[in-house]
Amino acid sequence: MSQSWLRRFCALLLTKVLPLAIESLKKAKDYANTNDHEMKKKSLQIATKLLEQTSDSLSIEIITDSVNIMLQLDYYVGAIQFLLNVATKSEQGKLALQYDSDSFNPLAAADPKKKAYDRRISLYGLIFQILSDIDEKAILSIRHASENGNLTVDKNHPAVFVGPEGQIITQYSQLRDQSYQTCLNFKDKVFHYEFYKWFISNGIGQKLLEIDTPYILDFLKDFSTKDFEIAKLLWLYYSRRENYYEAAKSLLSLSLSSFDIDLANRIQFLSRANGFCNCIPPSNIKQDVVQLSSQIIDLMSVANLQDELLLSILQDIRVGELAKEVAVEQLNGSILTISDLFNDFIDPLGYYELALIAFKVSDHRNSEDILTNWESLLNKWYVQYKAKNSNGSSSEPFYAEFSHKFILIGSRLSDSDVLFPVIELFQLLVKYCYSKEFSTDGVNHL
Fold it and tell me: 361: how many CB neighbours lie within 10 A of its CB?
């Protein structure tokens, strides 16, 4: 009963008010033709107030036509404010707030809250069209002023002057700035979220880093898990405001995310995050920064090992092309656990150098495993040397080639007595160099 009465009342109001609003718009056009700017503005203000009174009954078509008249009269800021008011302050605007697009049931397409929400988004779309229009006019007016080379004031070329920083300012560039400021000053979360999405969809997401509103940070945080570009904007937003701790946390999350990011970029994110942790933090979060830095360094060690493993597989002549493609697919993306790297790749493929590095990264201290890998590594080097010697591709004696490889791996492990047990390694070297099974080249160079 009440809804039926409300519909009749709105229809009656529309028939009474809409003609008055249209009449005011016509008057505004007449005043514009006679250059009576004050009366033109007053008529436009009256028209928008009348239209707002019956906004719930206005179709999108009527609203669009009314806005187009306003734009013809350069009433950009007023048109934007009118659309914002209609979208949020009307009964339909309030109903739209009750709709949650993330939990929308497609079977409830006739839901009045859904219809109200769609209408609200359509009105926001009109605002963004206005911004695009004024952007284009501002650019053209500045270009014309620059090419013209002088300041003019006439009907066809509105006032042009030079700003305090040497920039050319025109009527349309001022209208553009005022239009954007009107949007940024508007206090409505739904609008701001759509506004920021519009920036990103137009390829100007970087401009969000310059925005300082109560909504921008929440927007970046809310969508950073859903959109890769927004995730990158989040850490940049923090770093520009010298919040390096949060920037490092964002980069860590990005490196661990399910986004389609190759391993090199994940390592780069971790490296940058570690750099932020090295900045001097506020005293109240020093301990948090230390813990975060430790977590980042540990993950970097695993990621670097994964990168080295991938390169080893790609250079391994034993591995077929199809297997290499599979390895790239598995390794050139998300950072795997040290256990997966060791059990699925390093150990089965006999990469003993990487096995020792994996022991270091994982703090594995089993002496038997370590010595077994060292012995397997020495044997692998000698087998490789013999293979090269048999086809004449190696002219160096075994000890020279052996020394070079030993120094390379030793330099990475020598800071650990467990992974680089000097006495046991010396015994292994003696065994290899004096055994009849191996070359005597190394005897005089041990």
Answer: 18
Write out residues in the chain with pLDDT < 50, as ranges: 1-13, 103-104, 107, 153-155, 440-446
Is the CA virtual torsion 40, 41, 42, 46 positive or negative?
positive
How far apart are alpha carbons 68 and 44 in whole angstroms?
12
Q: Which residue has the tokens 């075994």?
A: 398
Q: What pLDDT, on the 0 to 100 scale, is given for residue 98?
A: 64
Distance CA 186, CA 249 (A): 31
Residue with tokens 């003993």: 352
- C-alpha 403/C-alpha 168 separation (Å) is 69
**pLDDT digits over 225-278, tens only?**
999 999 999 999 999 999 999 999 999 999 999 999 999 999 999 999 999 999
Residue 365 in tokens: 């201290």
C-alpha span between 402 and 423 (Å, rounded): 18
| pLDDT tens digits, one per residue of 120-132 | 999 999 999 999 9
Its pTM stands at 0.84
> Residues, the chain, total?
446
Among left, alpha and beta (phi > 0; psi -120 to 50; other), residue 363 is: left
- CA dist 443 and 434 (Å) reads 6
How far apart are alpha carbons 236 and 205 in whole angstroms?
A: 11
pLDDT for residue 7 = 47
Give the count of beta carbons closer than 10 Å to the beta carbon of residue 95. Answer: 18
All structural domains of the chain with their residue ranges: 17-101+110-186, 243-364, 366-446
Q: In a 10 Å sphere around its CB, with 0-12 CB exposed, 13-18 middle and 19+ buried, how is residue 83 labelled?
A: buried
Provide the CB-side half-sphere exposure for 405 (13 A, CA): 17
Sign (positive or negative) of CA dihedral 111, 117, 123, 126: negative
Beta strands, E only, 118-196: 160-162, 168-170
Helix axes 216-223, 189-201, angle to 10 degrees: 60
The separation between the first and the last C-alpha atoms of the chain, rounded to the nearest angstrom, is 102
What residue type is assigned to position 27 of the chain?
K
pLDDT of 369 reads 95
- Name 162's bridge partners: 168
Predicted local confidence at residue 349, as pLDDT: 96
Architecture (CATH level 2) of domain 243-364: Up-down Bundle (1.20)
DSSP code for 337: P
